[in-house]
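Quick one, tokens below. Sequence please?
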């Protein structure tokens, strides 16, 4: 299913929307992909906001596994409409229960100070292996995302920084040109921001990965500068800590020209399967 269809919600009533199922033609996923419900939640919030306001942040919690074969209903609460900022709360509902809860904040265009971190060194995407050829993801059903060109930088080509516990770099873009709609590109980025981030906590634990339960627990994003999701974006990821069955991950997203367009923080479940005992702690 195309990203445009995924993000094209049906309005059922004022402040109530319904999204498409994640995988209607495939039995691959039992649980809804987190980015799917986060992207649709953001679309539902945008639909209730005056176009003068642009989304600048979202904060969401994954409360229950979503059913990939059933549509999701989104209930939007108009929390605040201010002069400069507007806030929305969205609850995503399946089978009568909240599976995802998100707050989103919107701002009118304003002027202020400007600076950003430099884009980290990374090999260009041309010539890098695609997602299908990376063994961690092989045979895992990532064909669901084949409209996206996703290329993970090989470990031996990442410039590892001293003191960083776990690092990963990913290039991605939509394969085909998308319409000139900034909202579509932002919501598409929210959708894709969940795809590889938790993997940054697992790159040093590949032997243990098959013995872990892995799932997104919460997700926060900040949008900073304009971009297009159909042009290459570098997702520079790291995991500063993992303990207690959870891992904290973070990412910065850059255009090829070096503009920092978004930042992401996520905590995920990385709990050992019941009864599993690693050889070394």
């Amino acid at each position: 299913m195309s990203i445009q269809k995924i993000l094209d919600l049906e309005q059922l009533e004022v402040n109530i929307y319904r999204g498409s199922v994640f995988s209607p033609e495939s039995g691959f996923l039992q649980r809804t992909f987190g980015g799917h419900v986060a992207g649709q939640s953001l679309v539902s919030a945008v639909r209730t906001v005056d176009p003068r306001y642009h989304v600048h942040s979202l904060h969401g919690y994954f409360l229950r596994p979503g059913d990939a074969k059933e549509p999701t209903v989104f209930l939007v609460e108009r929390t605040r409409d201010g002069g400069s900022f507007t806030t929305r709360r969205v609850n995503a509902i399946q089978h009568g229960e909240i599976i995802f809860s998100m707050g989103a904040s919107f701002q009118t265009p304003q002027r202020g100070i400007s600076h950003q971190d430099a884009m980290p060194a990374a090999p260009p995407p041309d010539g890098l292996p695609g997602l299908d050829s990376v063994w961690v993801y092989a045979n895992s059903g990532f064909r669901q995302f084949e409209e996206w060109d996703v290329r993970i930088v090989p470990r031996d080509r990442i410039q590892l920084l001293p003191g960083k516990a776990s690092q990963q770099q990913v290039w991605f873009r939509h394969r085909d040109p998308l319409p000139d709609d900034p909202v579509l590109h932002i919501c598409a980025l929210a959708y894709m921001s969940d795809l590889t981030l938790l993997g940054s906590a697992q790159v040093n634990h590949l032997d243990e990965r098959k013995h872990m339960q892995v799932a997104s627990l919460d997700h926060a994003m900040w949008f900073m500068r304009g971009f297009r999701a159909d042009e290459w974006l570098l997702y520079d990821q790291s995991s500063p800590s993992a303990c207690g069955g959870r891992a904290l991950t973070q990412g910065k997203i850059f255009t090829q020209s070096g503009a920092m367009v978004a930042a992401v923080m996520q905590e995920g479940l990385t709990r050992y399967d019941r009864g599993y005992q690693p050889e070394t702690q």
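The chain has four helices and twelve strands. The CA atoms of residues 26 and 125 lie 30 Å apart.
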